[in-house]
Amino acid sequence: MDTISVLLVDDHRVVRQGLRDFLELQEDIEVIGEASSGEEGVQFARELLPDVVLMDLVMPGIDGVEATRRIKTASPSTRVIVLTSFADDDKVFPAIKAGAISYLLKDVSPEDLAHAIRAAQRNEAVLHPEVAAKLMQEFSAPRTAEAPVEQLTEREMDVLRLIARGKSNKEIADALVISEKTVKTHVSNILSKLHLADRTQAAIYALRQRLVPIE
After folding, report:
1. How many helices (H) and strands (E) does the chain have?
2. Are residues 73 and 171 located together in one domain of the fold?
3. Which domain holds residue 125?
4. What secondary structure letter does DSSP report for 85?
5. Segment 190-208, tens digit of pLDDT
6. Same domain, yes or no, for 62 and 116?
7. Cα separation of 168 and 199, whole Å?
8. Per 3-state DSSP, what percentage of the chain is helix, strand, and coil (rounded to 5)?
């Protein structure tokens, strides 16, 4: 079993300890470091190269958004999960734009947090329901500046719609009766053709273009 290495970045020691106590009970997750500020988070991420960073947003010095941006620049393969108390628009959108793959609130259950970490390792996004609703509302209208959806093949359109519904690569493969390897190829093509960074942006794009209904 591959172990997922995790770096905790939060300025509250009690929060970090609570996260560590739970995560250390997971056989496939290992906490390899803790940082009490955005600056420390960036430094430790560069040194330790964790698979996943759990990132608070409001901290002394540089905030979690800027720390996320710097970590993704230095180590693009590191997945950043925002774990915060705030679901305000001025926090959500900048964090996702900075490169966070998932956005969770601190009331998330321990089981759901572990699920989000495992999903991030698979490059799959997990959003708190309140945050997902904000994204759907914000990005439901088409934007003319985006790359035209007509660039996609019919099968790529099918994959994009399933991404927007939160399906994993395995679930997409099962639904379309194709291999996971083929799904990964389609996802890569979609991101390249539409000039998108990740699956989260692809899901937002699909909502903007009204390719899936907003539930």
Report:
1. 10, 5
2. no
3. 4-134
4. S
5. 999 988 878 877 887 887 7
6. yes
7. 10
8. 55, 15, 35
Q: How many domains does the chain have?
A: 2
Is the pTM higher than 0.70? no
What are the structure tokens assigned to 197, written together?
């960074």
Residue 55 lies in a domain: yes
Measured in degrees and rounded to the nearest 5, phi and psi for residue 211 equal -80, -20
How far is the CA of 47 from the CAs of 13, 19, 32, 41, 44, in angstroms?
21, 21, 11, 10, 5
Q: HSE-up of 95 (CA within 13 Å, CB side)?
A: 29
Does 116 lie in the same domain as 145? no
What's the length of the chain? 215
Question: Which structure tokens are listed for 22?
Answer: 């739970």
Using alpha carbons only, give the angle 73, 140, 169 rounded to the nearest 5 degrees. 55
Lowest mean pLDDT among 6-15, 32-41, 73-82, 121-130: 121-130
Output phi, psi for 12, to 5 deg: -105, 115
Q: Residue written as tokens 């093509």?
A: 189
Six-digit token pair at 130? 């309140």
